């Protein structure tokens, strides 16, 4: 199968100022990542705050130009697309945001919020659009009677439903969802997770699902990619990465999740310290200052993201020794 | 011996233009020395206002209208504001979710940790500064001698939360109330902070009220757990008992809806709707609208908390 979307060696840097008199420095938010997204699949992207997840999302939607690297959609390079092709891309690749409070225009009624993308992409006439909006509202579990209301008249969960309806309005093929349930209450999270699942099944969409909650990641993803300091450090199928991680960072993330199941409550492998600054990333393996397994070579040589077992790649010099020894 | 903290029949209300909002609607809770009590519930259910009530820091137009709060037998609601100030930050300390709003941006963190020591323990400026370095080291801040000179914005979220914990512990409190202390942090940092709180609580035999909506944290860290819904405690028990044998339909639903218990790719269990409006009177059971087993009588009767097994209390007429 050919991928729907491919990113190659994607880099995004920002110039930043340190202190008051400090010289300009370069912050590398995304430090060269490769991604492939296949039709109908959900790729889950996880990692600590500030590791570059949202930046990847913005690069892939074309909202931000990359510093270098390429993005291909159905084999066509984004940077070389004609205006018409780009418009088509923006229609087919939609975004759902974390914060259902700030991502909807407070002065627009629901009918306008959902009608606007239809108008922009010249879909249907006025009456047709009205029907489409009603259908969208039903699709996300709201009622067409909600059409004339403003966003503030809805709860957080309902607003997120509107955000999802807006993404679905123009019949996208890929949805990039950046922490779509993180701001929601527990009993509401499950409703939205189910809705996303339904939408994906019924419409056969591809998803890039960004979250820092690994139990949500496990629930929704087919494949998983773990990011650390602007790089992907591990990727593979959901079960591979989450059941038998091959990178010490993935292991630390998994063991830091407080578990409800007393049997799963083995002692935590605690990652020491904090995410280093992306302005001055550590030498060698970016995880080495926090890694419980670090060896001298780890601060000298950066490990490549390599296939360790079929379908599962990890960027660690010692994956085999740490995780695969007893399996043999 | 009286409990470390005993809250009975606490009611806290806000008189708003749109009506009286009953944020805390008859809460009973006890905490023993060395015990961690988790207070769990969705946003808006009254967790923070319960905590603020204990410290008598309910923001206006909020007011405690009924109940008693006994701290080692002494009724906090009957104390003068001056006596209360001696207790606040000294014998009962608070850690908030967002350290940025409770740390003062114009003072160094060292100064802020030392301030409590000077006020409550009468230490000299130098003594307080030395003690502050000691405390910051204890909570895992590397190179604390240098870090005391930093301003809050120069620290990461995790570091700021450590400073908050150092400030809370500065005067050796007997009770700490931590309101979502790790909600804004990453899981790896969260694990570090919770480990730290655990260690300090055990070492110093302090009581801890841990407010959170993360059930995993509760399961791992709390001795006892109280589930709050719409201003009421609806179920409370020893944590292991509560997770093994949840009885209230809300607790059951909440646990069933967690992705951790779902099958990947399958639907999660949900309940319909959202929390009720807390303005005005809620007749009957506040969970009625969302309850899968409720009936008409649930909307009429006042539902009492009942002990259904030793130490396991439930507010539901259908649980026997
Ligand atoms: N416009 C910008 N200018 C400068 N730095 C930026 C900009 N956008 C992002 N960054 C930096 O790039 C890094 C990655 O940020 P990004 O928002 O992608 O992280 P994230 O993984 O989405 O984090 P979170 O989980 O907190 O949402 C961070 O260090 C951030 O401060
Ligand atoms: N300053 C305030 N003014 C008016 N209402 C408030 C205020 N603070 C809290 N409330 C209301 O009191 C109820 C309980 O709030 P809170 O204790 O903060 O909930 P939680 O901490 O459980 O999320 C909510 O309905 C909230 O809207
Ligand atoms: S390369 Fe070394 S430091 Fe990096 S994750 Fe592997 S063992 Fe740890
Ligand atoms: S009292 Fe009735 S409505 Fe309330 S939780 Fe019990 S069964 Fe449900
Ligand atoms: Mg982000
Ligand atoms: Mg709160």
TrEMBL record, chain A:
Residues 5-254 form the ABC transporter domain. InterPro entries: AAA+_ATPase (IPR003593), ABC_transp_ATP-bind (IPR050319), ABC_transporter-like_ATP-bd (IPR003439), ABC_transporter-like_CS (IPR017871), Oligopep_ABC_C (IPR013563), P-loop_NTPase (IPR027417), PRELI/MSF1_dom (IPR006797). Residues 233-328 form the PRELI/MSF1 domain. Keywords: ATP-binding, Nucleotide-binding, Transport. One of its GO terms (molecular function) is ATP binding. Pfam families: ABC_tran, oligo_HPY. This is Dipeptide ABC transporter ATP-binding protein.
Automatic annotation (TrEMBL), chain B:
It comes from the Bacteria. This is ABC transporter ATP-binding protein. InterPro entries: AAA+_ATPase, ABC_Ni/Peptide_Import, ABC_transporter-like_ATP-bd, ABC_transporter-like_CS, Oligopep_ABC_C, P-loop_NTPase. Gene3D superfamilies: P-loop containing nucleotide triphosphate hydrolases. Belongs to the ABC transporter superfamily. SUPFAM superfamilies: P-loop containing nucleoside triphosphate hydrolases. NCBIfam families: oligo_HPY. It comes from Geomonas anaerohicana. It is a peripheral membrane protein. Coiled coil: none annotated. Keywords: ATP-binding, Cell membrane, Membrane, Nucleotide-binding, Transport. It is found in: Cell inner membrane. Residues 5-255 form the ABC transporter domain.
């Amino acid at each position: 199968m050919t991928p729907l979307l491919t990113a190659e060696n994607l880099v995004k840097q920002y110039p930043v100022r340190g202190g008051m008199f400090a010289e300009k420095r370069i912050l590398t938010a995304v430090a060269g990542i490769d991604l492939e997204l296949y039709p109908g699949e959900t790729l889950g992207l996880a990692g600590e705050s500030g590791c570059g997840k949202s930046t990847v999302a913005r690069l892939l939607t074309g909202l931000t130009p990359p510093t270098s690297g390429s993005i291909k959609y159905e084999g066509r390079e984004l940077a070389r697309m004609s205006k018409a092709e780009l418009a088509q891309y923006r229609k087919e690749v939609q975004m759902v945001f974390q914060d259902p409070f700030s991502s909807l225009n407070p002065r627009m009624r629901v009918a306008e919020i959902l009608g606007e993308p239809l108008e922009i992409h010249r879909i249907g006439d006025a009456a047709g659009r009205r029907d489409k909006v009603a259908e969208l509202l039903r699709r996300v579990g709201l009622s067409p009677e909600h059409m004339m209301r403003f966003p503030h008249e809805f709860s957080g969960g309902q607003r997120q439903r509107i955000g999802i309806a807006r993404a679905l309005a123009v019949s996208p093929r890929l949805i990039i969802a950046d922490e779509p349930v993180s701001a929601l209450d527990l009993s509401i999270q499950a409703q939205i997770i189910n809705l996303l699942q339904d939408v994906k099944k019924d419409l056969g969409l591809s998803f890039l699902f960004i979250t820092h909650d690994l139990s949500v990641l496990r629930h929704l993803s087919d494949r998983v990619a773990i990011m650390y300091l602007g790089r992907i450090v591990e990727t593979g199928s959901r079960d591979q990465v989450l059941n038998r991680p091959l990178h010490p960072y993935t292991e630390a993330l998994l063991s830091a999740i407080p578990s409800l199941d007393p049997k799963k409550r083995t002692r935590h492998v605690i990652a020491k310290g904090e995410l280093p600054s992306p302005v001055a990333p550590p030498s060698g393996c970016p995880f080495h200052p926090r890694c419980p397994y670090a060896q001298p070579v780890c601060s000298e040589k950066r490990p490549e993201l390599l296939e360790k077992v079929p379908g599962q790649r990890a960027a660690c010099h010692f994956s085999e020794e740490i995780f695969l020894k007893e399996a043999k | 011996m009286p409990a470390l903290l005993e809250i009975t029949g606490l009611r806290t209300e806000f008189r708003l233009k749109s009506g009286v909002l009953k944020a805390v609607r008859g809460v009973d809770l006890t905490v023993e020395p060395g015990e961690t009590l988790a207070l769990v519930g969705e946003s808006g259910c009254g967790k923070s206002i319960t905590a603020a009530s204990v410290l008598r820091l309910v923001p206006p137009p909020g007011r405690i209208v009924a109940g008693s709060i006994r701290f080692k037998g002494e009724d906090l609601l009957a104390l003068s504001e001056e006596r209360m100030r001696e207790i606040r930050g000294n014998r009962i300390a608070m850690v908030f979710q967002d350290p940025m709003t409770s740390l003062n941006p114009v003072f160094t963190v060292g100064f802020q940790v030392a301030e409590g020591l000077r006020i409550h323990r009468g230490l000299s400026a130098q003594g307080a500064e030395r003690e502050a370095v000691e405390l910051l080291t204890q909570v895992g801040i590397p190179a604390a001698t240098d870090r005391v000179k930093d301003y809050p914005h120069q620290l990461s979220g995790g570091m700021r939360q450590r400073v908050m914990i150092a400030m809370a512990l500065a005067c050796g409190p007997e009770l700490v109330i931590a309101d979502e202390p790790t909600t804004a942090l990453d899981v790896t940092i969260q694990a570090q902070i919770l480990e730290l709180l655990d260690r300090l609580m055990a070492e110093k035999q302090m009581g801890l009220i841990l407010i959170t909506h993360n059930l995993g944290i509760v399961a791992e860290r709390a001795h006892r757990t109280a589930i709050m819904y719409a201003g009421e405690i609806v179920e409370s028990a020893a944590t292991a008992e509560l997770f093994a044998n949840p009885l209230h339909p809300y607790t059951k639903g909440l646990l069933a809806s967690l992705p951790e218990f779902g099958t990947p790719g399958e639907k999660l269990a949900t309940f319909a709707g959202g929390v009720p409006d807390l303005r005005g009177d809620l007749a009957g059971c506040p969970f009625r609208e969302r309850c899968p087993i409720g009936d008409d009588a649930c909307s009429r009767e006042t539902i009492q908390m009942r002990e259904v097994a030793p130490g396991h209390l439930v507010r539901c007429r259908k649980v026997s």
